């Protein structure tokens, strides 16, 4: 896409959803961190279903440590890989208590050093909890960036680097959520809703396939 196309692409997303929000339900930076760790290879819906009763009892790392790994597993048993996730959540909770006074650090390297927290998780927490203009690339964003031609790349990091360069400053704070939601509900993996897509005339895939544009 040209710089003008990119500007227009984001302008439309912003107009369609001026204040995008994460679909994970959380109370504070710590519960967000737990939710994002749980969301790996799981849907936000399934995570929210598990964390609603959990967060009624636990919303600090101190409370999580007191809860214990066995009881945590009872709450998150419905989520894939729950055994390993429970182990990581307990470990990172201990670190937060021992090294950070129970607070979630606002630093990417510090977050990535926590058990079960990778680059994507750290960037999501920095964006959602602390309002930093980071762009965490998940499968939805990777698909949107490549399919539309917004920021094509061979891997997640390549797409992230390109998005960091091409995304206008005024759109950076919300770019992460706009692109995720666009990929989740419009530019879907199997049946993209091209006929009702607000970006169809800008999309490289539509131009190549000749899908009729919405009127």
Explain what the structure shows.
- By secondary structure, the protein is an all-alpha fold.
- The chain has 2 domains: 3-20 and 135-209, Endonuclease Iii, domain 2 (Orthogonal Bundle), CATH 1.10.1670.10; 29-130, Orthogonal Bundle (Endonuclease III, domain 1).
- It has helices at 3-16, 29-38, 44-57, 61-67, 69-76, 82-100, 108-112, 119-130, 139-148, 156-166, 172-185, 204-209.
- Helix 4 (61-67) packs across helix 6.
- The chain is elongated.
- It catalyses: 2'-deoxyribonucleotide-(2'-deoxyribose 5'-phosphate)-2'-deoxyribonucleotide-DNA = a 3'-end 2'-deoxyribonucleotide-(2,3-dehydro-2,3-deoxyribose 5'-phosphate)-DNA + a 5'-end 5'-phospho-2'-deoxyribonucleoside-DNA + H(+).
Which terms would index this structure?
Endonuclease Iii, domain 2; Endonuclease III, domain 1; 215 residues; elongated; mainly alpha; 12 helices; Endonuclease-III-like_CS2
CATH superfamily membership of the largest domain: Hypothetical protein, domain 2
Number of helices: 12
* SS-derived structural category: mainly alpha
Tell me about the largest β-sheet. Answer: none
CATH architecture of the largest domain: Orthogonal Bundle
The CATH topology of the largest domain, please? Endonuclease III, domain 1
Helix content: 55-70%
Order of helices and strands: HHHHHHHHHHHH
Give the percentage of residues in beta strands: under 5%
Number of distinct beta strands: 0
Radius of gyration: 19 Å
List low-pLDDT spans: none
Rough outline: elongated
Distance between the termini: 22 Å
Structurally, how many domains make up the residues? 2
């Amino acid at each position: 896409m040209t710089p003008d196309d990119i500007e227009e692409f984001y302008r439309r997303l912003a107009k369609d959803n001026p204040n995008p929000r994460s679909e994970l339900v959380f109370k504070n930076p710590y519960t967000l961190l737990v939710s994002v760790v749980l969301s790996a290879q799981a849907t936000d819906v399934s995570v929210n279903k598990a964390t609603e009763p959990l967060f009624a009892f636990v919303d600090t790392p101190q409370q999580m440590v007191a809860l214990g790994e066995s009881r945590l597993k009872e709450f998150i048993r419905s989520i894939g890989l729950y055994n390993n996730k429970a182990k990581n959540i307990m470990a990172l909770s201990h670190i937060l208590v021992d090294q950070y006074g129970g607070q979630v650090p606002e630093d990417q390297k510090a977050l990535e050093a926590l058990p079960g927290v990778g680059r994507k998780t750290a960037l999501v927490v920095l964006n959602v909890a602390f309002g930093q203009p980071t762009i965490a690339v998940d499968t939805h964003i990777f698909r949107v960036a490549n399919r539309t031609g917004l920021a094509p790349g061979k891997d997640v990091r390549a797409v992230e680097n390109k998005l960091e360069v091409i995304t206008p400053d005024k759109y950076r704070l919300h770019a992460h959520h706009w692109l995720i939601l666009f990929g989740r509900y419009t530019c879907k993996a199997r049946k993209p809703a091209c006929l009702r897509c607000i970006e169809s005339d800008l999309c490289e895939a539509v131009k190549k396939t000749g899908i009729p544009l919405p009127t």
